[in-house]
Each structure stands twice: as structure tokens, then as C-alpha cells.
Specification:
alpha/beta, binds beta-D-ribofuranose, binds calcium ion
Length: 324
């Protein structure tokens, strides 16, 4: 069994990603750590546990940090609805969160499970806090698949930034600089044709027609509306499930390359921008002194794998298979 930890600010697309992981037979989700982002931790935790309950599973859920390191919290009620689940007002889940806080839980779980796969679906506050307290966990994580960033600078919260990174850019910077083997799955990969179209959603509800298929579409009711009006995209964007699809089956990412990546924390217009050194232009030692790239170069070769393209039919097939 592959072991996986999911760090999430559970709202409607995180919910579908959790379902996908829990419905994959060779993956054991050894912990879900909850971070603030789309929702405060309390609501995100309820949403995570309800999503697991829909799968008939009870992975341990650990509540984590409720506010970014230094920024004011920013919730995505406008996008995911006041409950984060499309105003579906689902009943409270039976399962309670664990007593242990998410940050010590992350450290303990990673140390106890070398080779574990980490999938991050929210702001990186919990993960960064764990890395600051326990840098020894870096080589114990075999993959860190991250829904975050916008490699092509197509932002969804500002023109320059994607929501998860923008919420807590200082935390994201710590994670990118840590040496964790990040696979960056940017916002742009769920757009356009990768959206679930009206026909795709009809297929899920009418042909697959399982409780999980209905749940996955229904809880995204607000996201579908907001995506059309706010972002001008055709239907349902599922960034976290796209990242989870790549976590489950890395071949769904059809084009990727290794780069130095850092996060803009000081810019006026570019807070949270993921700056990808796509052409490897930061190689001149004279330009490096004191720059963020010096931090990266000191660690040797680039280690952040940027995903540039996905196989859209196969991403959708994997989603259909897991909800069926
Ligand atoms: C990310 O922000 C959240 O709204 C989604 O859950 C996803 O993790 C997309 O920018
Ligand atoms: Ca999320």
C-alpha cells in the first residue's frame, strides 16, 4: 500500500480530491491535516470528515493552524459558499477530529512512515510550520504533490497569484526553499477543457449515478456559478482533484521539468506569485549574491518539478472511476 498524507483547507474541490484518494485501493490515507484557507479550520475539518464519511472511511483528521504566518486570513466564501460545500448544509459528520494538532501530527506521521507521499491542497501554513520545527522530515517525504501556484502567471485571486500561495506566501516560500520534492500543479491546469463541462457533469450524475458522483457535483454548486461569473471559464474547475489525479497516477502529467521556484513575498502587485526560473537564467554567480536564487543554488540542482500539461481525458477517467 502507498501511504499518503493530505493537507487541506477543505471546501468543495478539496472534498472531491479526498474522495479520489480514499477510493483508490492501493492508497492508504494515514492522516488528513486541516489548515485554514478557503474556510476557517473548524468548517474545513467538518467538510473533510464529511467527505470521508461519504466514502465510508474514517482516516484520522487533525485540525491545524487557523491563520497565515503574518497575513490576515482570507476566506473563499464567495467561491465555495458559506459552508464551503455549495450551501448544501450537509449534516455534521459522526467522526470527530483527533486531539493532536496537525503540525506535530505531520512530523510524527512523516517520521514514522519514511517514503510517505504528501499532497497539499491548501495554503502551506501547516507544512511550513512542520518544516521549521523538524527539517529532518524533508528526505523522508518521497513526493510532495502541491496544488498551488501558477507557473504561467495566470492568477485566480490576483492577476499574478493563485489562491493557496497568495493566502500565506511566507509559508509557501519556506516550503519551496526546504528541498521537499515538490511537484507543482498550478491553477492553469484545471482550466478550459480540463473543466468538467455540463456534459461531463450530466454523465456523472445520470450515467455513473452513485452517491459519490452526486456529492462531487452537488457540493460544487457555488464553485460552478462563481467560476462562470468570476473567472469566465466554461463550467466546473477542480484544481485539487487534478493535483490528486497526478498524485495517484503521475503519468497523468504529460509534460514536466525541474526548476528553481520561489515565491514573491514583497511585491506590491505580485504577492504570492510563483516565480519559475524556466530558462535557468539565474546561473551567473555575480547576480546571485544575496538573491533568493542563491538559497536554491546552494542546495544544488533544481528540485521543484513544474507540471506544464495533463492528459485531460485520463484525468477525467480517473475521477469517474473513483466516484463510481
Ligand atoms: C485553490 O484554492 C481553493 O479555492 C481551492 O480549494 C484550491 O485548492 C485553487 O486556487
Ligand atoms: Ca483547497
Amino acid at each position: 500500500m502507498r501511504k499518503m498524507i493530505i493537507d487541506t483547507d477543505t471546501a468543495s474541490d478539496d472534498a472531491v480530491a479526498i474522495v479520489m484518494a480514499l477510493q483508490t485501493p492501493d492508497i492508504e490515507v494515514i492522516g488528513i491535516t486541516v489548515v485554514a484557507g478557503n474556510m476557517p479550520v473548524k468548517q474545513a475539518s467538518i467538510n473533510a470528515r464529511y467527505s470521508a464519511q461519504m466514502c465510508g472511511k474514517t482516516p484520522p483528521v487533525y485540525d491545524g493552524i487557523d491563520t497565515p504566518f503574518i497575513r490576515d486570513p482570507h476566506r473563499a466564501y464567495f467561491f465555495h459558499g458559506s459552508d464551503g460545500m455549495g450551501e448544501m448544509k450537509y449534516p455534521d459528520p459522526v467522526q470527530q477530529p483527533e486531539a493532536e494538532h496537525a503540525v506535530p501530527a505531520l512530523i510524527r506521521l512523516i517520521r514514522a512512515n519514511p517514503g510517505v507521499e504528501l499532497v497539499t491542497l491548501g495554503p502551506l501554513t501547516n507544512v511550513a510550520a512542520a518544516l521549521l520545527q523538524a527539517p529532518d522530515i524533508v528526505p523522508l517525504v518521497s513526493r510532495c504533490v502541491m496544488m498551488g501556484g501558477a507557473a504561467c502567471t495566470v492568477g485566480n485571486i490576483t492577476p499574478a497569484a493563485e489562491f493557496n500561495i497568495w493566502c500565506d506566501p511566507e509559508a509557501a516560500r519556506i516550503v519551496f526553499r526546504s528541498g521537499l520534492p515538490v511537484e507543482m500543479v498550478g491553477w492553469e491546469l484545471c482550466r478550459g477543457e480540463a473543466n468538467l463541462s455540463d456534459a461531463d457533469m450530466r454523465y456523472m450524475k445520470e450515467q455513473i449515478n452513485t452517491p459519490l458522483a452526486h456529492f462531487s457535483i452537488d457540493c460544487n454548486a457555488s464553485a460552478i456559478r462563481a467560476n462562470r461569473t468570476w473567472l469566465g471559464d466554461p463550467a466546473l474547475p477542480l484544481p485539487d482533484p487534478v493535483a490528486m489525479a497526478i498524485a495517484i497516477d503521475p503519468t497523468i502529467c504529460t509534460q514536466s521539468s525541474l526548476h528553481y521556484v520561489d515565491v514573491e513575498c514583497e511585491g506590491i502587485f505580485t504577492r504570492g506569485m510563483t516565480v519559475v526560473d524556466q530558462l535557468d537564467v539565474t546561473h551567473n554567480p555575480d547576480d546571485l549574491a544575496g538573491s533568493m536564487w542563491a538559497v536554491h543554488r546552494a542546495k544544488g540542482k533544481p528540485w521543484v518539478r513544474v507540471c506544464w500539461a495533463i492528459d485531460i481525458p485520463r484525468w477525467k477517467s480517473l475521477l469517474y472511476k473513483t466516484v463510481a
